[in-house]
Amino acid sequence: MAKNFDVVVIGAGPGGYVAAIRAAQLGFSTACIDEWKTEKGTPAPGGTCTNVGCIPSKALLQSSEHFEHAGHGFAEHGIDVQGLKLDLGRMLGRKDTVVKQNNEGILYLFKKNKVSFFHGRGSFVKAEGGTYEIKVAGASEETITAKHVIVATGSNPRQLPNVPFDEKLVLSNTGALAIGDVPKKLGVIGAGVIGLEMGSVWRRLGADVTVLEALPAFLGAVDEQIAKEAFKLFTKQGLSISLGVKIGTITPGKNDVTVEYTDDKGNAQKAVFDKLIVSIGRVPNTIGLNAEAVGLQLDERGFVAVDGDCKTSLPNVWAVGDVVRGPMLAHKAEEEGVAVAERIAGQHGHVNFNTIPWVIYTSPEIAWVGKTEQQLKAEGVAYKAGTFPFLANGRARALGDTSGMVKFLADAKSDEILGVHIIGPVASELISEAVVAMEFRASAEDIARICHAHPSLSEATKEAALAVDKRSLNF
């Protein structure tokens, strides 16, 4: 006999597991289905983010940054390191432990909030009498029914045509996180978030990294001034970045990969890499969902079609996260998951796409929220800009990390903050102040008038806000 629930969530990534917890908090009998598993076959909820994305990549970024600091940065602090040695197996083991802790944390949260967890692949069977029947294909097959269904099946890495991922020579984000030996020559196709983060990890550990990007501009979604600073700093660190390239034939060999491409001047080039990471975006994951069984509509790009409230074409079926329109960000998925659970309860869940922060966890980190300067120019918005370099920040000097800046963009008349862009130490943490300010429609003057602790990196935020009115105090 099928088990009945008020709400069933398909997928336990950031959007799915948070949606399930919030639905349970609101008093609904809730189930969550997820098929991720460990090598031992045990449940591994958390989706791409926890298993092969956000969490393990940050673990390796942290470890590799420690290694680089020990080899190159400690000396100026009066710390001499003798016989520095990399134990990559132990580093990868730590990464796996961090992932496992997050998996177990989600299972604990399900138990705490009385969410029923089903391990397997969830797919629609039929809609009947105002409920949806869903099959769970796992170690044993089960059938459950629900009045409301939330689809949170995430995304998969996009492959190059005719070049499948083998995760040995041609790597997606999954393989990029599990390279057993530091490659001498590493190729990365795509200078986006994943390409730059993974390229940074393996460069720090000793690889000669070449990044090939098809677009003529570096980090086109980032404020142009910040992107130019990033390009300068990354190339100085040792990343070789080629823009405007056209990828041709890719030929995996026995122990290497040959990439033929045309550079931005039209010259034919050939490079041989020990490993090749392909990071050219992600595609929505609806494989096995059996959407056609219930008439669930997908859009022209394969995403589950939703309206502004994440409602699909079917009554009481919702979708959130990477499988729907909007930025493919874990925190965006979480906010949508909470909002949908609250909408099911008759509340007014809300997600403000204009104040979703973006972060690239390179060193220095890059973070931003709101409009870029090029967007404001294109839209004909009159604005004022203010910048402040970390070079003039006392805490940054003490840390020994003075690269980058904070940049404010504010409306020329009202002074309302329209965008904040940061490249520098812990930009991922500093951006939160800007998100709060923009959510409350604060002005640059508001931030400029708030007392910030001294010495702190956040003072650079205050100073950039002051600079909007051309009155920064320390630069």
UniProtKB/TrEMBL annotation:
One of its GO terms (molecular function) is flavin adenine dinucleotide binding. Keywords: Cytoplasm, FAD, Flavoprotein, NAD, Nucleotide-binding, Oxidoreductase, Redox-active center. It comes from the Bacteria. Its cofactor is FAD. GO terms for cellular component: cytoplasm. It is an enzyme of class 1 (oxidoreductase). Its main location: cytoplasm. The active site is at H454. The keyword Disulfide bond does not apply. NAD(+) binds at G190, A191, G192, V193, I194, G195, L196, E197, E213, G281. It is found in: Cytoplasm. Residues 356-465 form the Pyridine nucleotide-disulphide oxidoreductase dimerisation domain. Signal peptide: none annotated. Pfam families: Pyr_redox_2, Pyr_redox_dim. FAD binds at K58, G122, T153, G154, S155, D322, M328, L329, A330, H331. It catalyses: N(6)-[(R)-dihydrolipoyl]-L-lysyl-[protein] + NAD(+) = N(6)-[(R)-lipoyl]-L-lysyl-[protein] + NADH + H(+). Residues 5-337 form the FAD/NAD(P)-binding domain. GO terms for biological process: 2-oxoglutarate metabolic process. Disulfide bonds join C49-C54. The active site is a redox-active disulfide bond. Belongs to the class-I pyridine nucleotide-disulfide oxidoreductase family. This is Dihydrolipoyl dehydrogenase.
